[in-house]
Amino acid sequence: MRADRLVSLVLLLRQRGRLSAETLARELEVSTRTVLRDIEALSAAGVPVYAERGRHGGFALLPGFRTELTGLNHDEALALLVAGSRRGAQAFGLGSALASAMLKVVDALPESQRDTAAGVAERLLIDPETDLLSRRLVAEEVPDPIAAEVRRAVFAGHKLRIHYAAMNETSKWRTVDPIGLVTVRDQGYLLATRSGADRTYRLSRILAAEELAEPAQRPDRVDLDRAWQERSARFRSGDDQVTVLVRVNPVRREDLVGTALAVLAEEAEADGWLRMEVTFQDSRHAEWALWQLSTNAEALAPQWLRTALRNRAAAIATRYEGPAES
Question: Disulfide: which of 132, 257, 260, 269 matches 278 by Cβ 3.0-4.6 Å?
Fold first, then answer.
């Protein structure tokens, strides 16, 4: 880890020039004392780093010093820089590694291309944290030690022991055979088998993880995309799922599709609204999703859903009948 940090420190100084110990500590997520020790180690290794005293002082490299990182052309570096703006790495606990990699990508470019690539990358934004309505898209947090332990077991092909908190169940320890990692809309999942049966675990619900020495029972090769599609199909056909017939204003179609598990049928009506047949995870999910659409949607069937929405609307109307209580 220290070797990676030393490389990152050199790249920061190359790309930004003189930086204070406090700035370096903030960028590298370490203490200023650690930065000072790293500076001493670099000097001892022959890296021409020197200190400038005074109010605007800091650390800098002698002009012309360059690390030996080559092999990327402009478009390759730009592609990596754009990919680096995605938040998927956070789901697997690779955020700090990604930041370090981006420094190396920029430094690998010829000087004539470095500023151009960085400037172009600034004009591309992938998956911002909020949409046009200022709704925040919150990525799930996975502690780095847990993510690292899961990654090691997946890559090494070892069994994994996890303390898992399934929804509406008491958390407990399970030993699984990890197959791969998937991220969907900033949510990370572990695909695994347990006693030979397929299992899918959300990373944010893993409370602790321990890589075991025992080899995992799994095939040598895996098609993760196919495995994910198969598990998604099984999930959508679960016993608690409900199918709903609904009319929706086309301006809210994407909101409905974004919350439903699947769209089974869709057609336009004479008034421009859409008649859609969609499935939800359960009755509570269906009621919640249709309520979010307010008057821009109407549940046509089943009747229990129409009744539930009517009762909810009646309760709201009753609440606001009179003046507010002081």
Answer: 260
